[in-house]
């Protein structure tokens, strides 16, 4: 009887856990038994691994082979364990020494000819290996650049099982990562492309400076989509930790580029209005995958024609908006995905959507029902509402509108003021600050909050809406360079919450 060991990683959500793979070769009829809660894809790996080992010229054991994945109670999903299973069997048969193998995590799917194929979730798996104290990780050659984003662990790339076996024997070397190339900046247009709409442009600047959610309503062709698409160009670049966090999510989703794996700019995600709850929030079987809200983490989630989305889809946004996280429960556990994004909603005022309100042919009940899909609790979580109107002749104005660069500079300065104010608490934008902190730690003058108090007493605003108005007031204050929101700043914030109903 011979025993071999190898290491791999199981990823659930954005969290990974080290998995130990044991291979036992015993007497009996030739067979391969896989234990440790494997899914269907992992069960099929028995045939892939056996063919890969034989096709690189190594001998597969003649007896009974038992492959155990520990912890046994943790579900094992996917084909990421193929490489580790193969080298564990070769270790048990004495074909490779175990010195390097015991200190290395193996990740990758095997082809029948022994090639190592890329799998999803390499980045969170490497992070989990580093956190577990493993000094080295072997990944598919196509994923070397992605894995190299993690510092504190040696990353090596393998094109095939034969190269891994030679490296374990000390007879060859594996690929080492080159300099990591940052993700390319995706052109999102310039704010100067939007003509007129001064009120909406100012609202977009406030939303970018404070990380606030935004609702744009108005007739078609007025510039709602253009404004939303230019919001990422106003946001500051992602910090190092944010970039790694966003990249890990897109690694799980399989949307990373092999040439430029690191995402350094705020993502922009715009799902179609026919998207399901699973596509929006995340899910799937047997392994939960990140949805649109998680792929928009630290960026912008734009829902165009939001009144056309299903009511269940819209209501499912309420928890991520409040908590900045998605937790998807499955039979075998809970997958957690971060989802702290800026929501931008765009909608026509009614189904017929005329260029002028006087031309509307919809019945009053139809108009109310159209935007009625946006429930009160959901609208209460939107900080800024803007009703956009047409401007005759704006497209032929002689002066060019202000561009994104100038606005982004003001946004960066305002965000820096917010970072300095909330640094000790770890918040980077005003939108992240809890309401009780705004009410208790830094009290605004009585004359400044008087309009909010009046709105609360009259029932025109909820306590959540009052907290969001104060957050917007702080952002307006930061944009003008003030130290404390004035009464005018508070009135501006309240005005933002009333324009959408006009």
Structure, described:
By secondary structure, this protein is an alpha/beta fold. It has two domains: 2-168, Ribosomal Protein S5, domain 2, CATH 3.30.230; 191-396, P-loop containing nucleotide triphosphate hydrolases (Rossmann fold), CATH 3.40.50.300. Helix content is 35%, strand content 18%. The strands form six sheets. It has a five-stranded parallel β-sheet with strand order 11-14-17-10-18. A four-stranded mixed β-sheet has the order 1-2-4-3. A hairpin with a 5-residue loop joins strand 12 and strand 13. Helix 16 packs across helix 19 (463-480) and helix 18 (446-457) packs parallel to helix 20 (487-496). The radius of gyration is 27 Å and the shape is elongated. The model has no long low-confidence stretch (mean pLDDT 89). This is AAA+ ATPase domain-containing protein. Belongs to the Mg-chelatase subunits D/I family. ComM subfamily.
């Amino acid at each position: 009887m011979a025993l071999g060991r190898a290491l791999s990683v199981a990823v659930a959500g954005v969290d990974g856990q080290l998995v130990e793979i044991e291979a036992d070769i015993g007497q009996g009829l030739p067979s391969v038994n896989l234990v440790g809660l494997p899914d269907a894809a992992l069960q099929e790996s028995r045939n892939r691994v056996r063919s890969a080992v034989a096709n690189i010229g190594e001998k597969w054991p003649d007896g009974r082979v038992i492959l155990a994945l520990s912890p046994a109670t943790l579900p094992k999903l996917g084909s990421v364990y193929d490489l580790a299973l193969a080298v564990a069997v070769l270790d048990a048969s004495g074909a490779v020494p175990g010195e390097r193998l015991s200190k290395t995590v193996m990740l990758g799917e095997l082809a029948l000819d022994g090639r190592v194929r890329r799998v999803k979730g390499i980045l969170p798996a490497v992070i989990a290996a580093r956190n577990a104290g493993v000094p080295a990780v072997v990944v598919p050659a196509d994923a070397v650049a992605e894995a190299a984003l993690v510092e504190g662990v040696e990353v090596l790339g393998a094109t095939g099982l034969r190269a891994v076996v030679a490296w374990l024997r000390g007879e060859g070397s594996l690929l080492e990562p080159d300099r990591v190339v940052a993700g390319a900046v995706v052109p999102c247009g310039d704010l100067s492309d939007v003509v007129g709409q001064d009120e909406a442009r100012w609202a977009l600047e406030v939303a970018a400076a404070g990380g606030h959610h935004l609702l744009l309503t108005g007739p078609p062709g007025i510039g709602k989509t253009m404004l939303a698409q230019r919001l990422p160009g106003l946001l500051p670049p992602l910090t190092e930790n944010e970039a790694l966090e966003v990249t890990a999510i897109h690694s799980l989703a399989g949307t990373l580029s092999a040439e430029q794996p690191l995402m350094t700019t705020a993502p922009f995600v715009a799902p179609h209005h026919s998207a399901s709850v699973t596509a929006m929030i995340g899910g799937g079987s047997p392994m939960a995958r990140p949805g649109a809200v998680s792929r928009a983490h630290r960026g912008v989630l734009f829902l165009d024609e939001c009144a056309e989305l299903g009511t269940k889809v819209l209501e499912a946004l309420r928890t991520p908006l409040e908590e900045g996280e998605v937790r998807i429960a499955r039979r075998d556990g809970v997958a957690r995905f971060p989802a702290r994004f800026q929501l931008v909603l765009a909608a026509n005022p009614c189904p017929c959507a005329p260029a002028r309100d006087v031309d509307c042919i919809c019945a009053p009940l139809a108009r109310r029902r159209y935007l009625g899909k946006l429930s009160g609790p959901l609208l209460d979580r939107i900080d800024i509402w803007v009703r956009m109107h047409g401007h005759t002749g704006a497209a032929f104005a002689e002066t060019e509108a202000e561009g994104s660069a100038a606005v982004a500079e003001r946004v960066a300065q305002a965000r820096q003021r917010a970072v300095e104010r909330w640094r000790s608490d770890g918040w980077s934008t005003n939108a992240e600050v809890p309401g009780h902190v705004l009410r208790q730690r830094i009290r605004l003058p009585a004359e400044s909050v008087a309009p909010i108090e009046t709105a609360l007493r009259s029932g025109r605003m909820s306590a959540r809406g009052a907290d969001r108005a104060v957050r917007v007031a702080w952002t307006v204050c930061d944009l003008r360079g003030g130290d404390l929101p004035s009464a005018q700043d508070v009135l501006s914030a309240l005005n933002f919450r009333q324009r959408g109903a006009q």
